[in-house]
Amino acid sequence: MNPPAEPNPESLIAIIGGQLIDGHGGQPIENAVVVIRGSKIVAAGPQREVEIPEVAKMINARGLSILPGLIDTHFHSRDGVKLPIEYELQKGITSFRDPGHPFKYYIIPLLSKETLPRIFLCGGHLDGIHPIHRDQAIRVESVKHAKQAVGWHVNRGASAIKVYFMLPLEHIAATCEAANEQGVIVTAHLELVDADDAIRAGVRGIEHVTSFGTVLANPEDAAHFKTEVRADPNKRRSMRPWLWSRIDLDNAPRLQPLLDLIVETGTFVSPTIGIFEARKVEKYATEEQVRGFQTGMEFITHCHEAGAKIVVGSHTRSPFADSGYAY
Ligand SMILES: [Zn+2]
């Protein structure tokens, strides 16, 4: 939405004296210098080893840390710049994606003169004929309609398309085909469609660890879950801990094929695990919720060990993070 202006290619900036964390797993460097020419880092390292050009604009970073900008792949904001500034930019997050809020929620940031993180939008999410969030969803009624919706969004700047859980597999597949033609990916929040089916249909991002539940559960539990959620979508909130507390990853025949599929297709996994957190010490967390959360964490560990691309989505707020610290 708001790509930063290209700096003068000859401008020189030196950030001096901070603790440098390179983001590649290297040891932090104390008292570091980073030299930037135009939009490129041309030197970085301990102060004694890096020559600081005399003409560089100096930024004193003593007592601070220098690290690559963080990316929040699942952040929702509406009608303002307060959250993007306080929850993201001031916390080191220099880019975020809002998967599924309509473009109109971002008119104020678009017109704002404030310094903001880079904002990537999907536009309203594509949902079935009885959408869950009527004010945010694009109601998709046919294959043709799915393709039109993708074109409409991409023409207005969507860098990904979000599909929501009442959208049937056939329309997810049509969405993916159209998005693929337009060069953007589709990312999904699932409850009723199995994640492996969605990935085979072309989805390349899965939002929320819970979207994998029906693949990992035993078939009877998965069928019961779908029947209940289809009848009353609000039941997903209580049914997800139920489903996940019963998942046995050591005996889930579709786990390994799912991991293989995620890795082979390069599908991004955005677990947003923070919003599902349940702790034993908290009175309101049931045994079922705690177990379900732990199994979700185990599944993410499997994804990581298999080599999946895992990204961080804060979902703006989570129950055990102070305001603005969900990421
Ligand atoms: Zn969300």
Description:
The protein is of the alpha/beta class. It folds into two domains: 12-66, Urease, subunit C, domain 1 (Roll); 70-310, Alpha-Beta Barrel (TIM Barrel). It is built from ten helices and 15 strands. It has helices at 82-88, 107-111, 143-155, 169-182, 195-200, 213-216, 219-231, 236-246, 255-265, 287-306, and strands at residues 12-20, 29-37, 40-46, 57-60, 65-66, 70-72, 93-98, 118-121, 125-127, 137-139, 160-163, 185-188, 205-207, 268-270, 309-310. The strands form four sheets. Strands 1, 2, 3, 4 and 5 form a five-stranded mixed beta sheet that branches. A five-stranded parallel beta sheet has the order 11-12-13-14-15. A hairpin with a 2-residue loop joins β2 and β3. α7 packs antiparallel against α8 and α8 packs across α10. It is globular, with a radius of gyration of 22 Å. The two termini are 21 Å apart. The mean pLDDT is 96. Bound molecules: zinc ion (ZN). Zinc ion is lined by residues 74, 76, 99, 315.
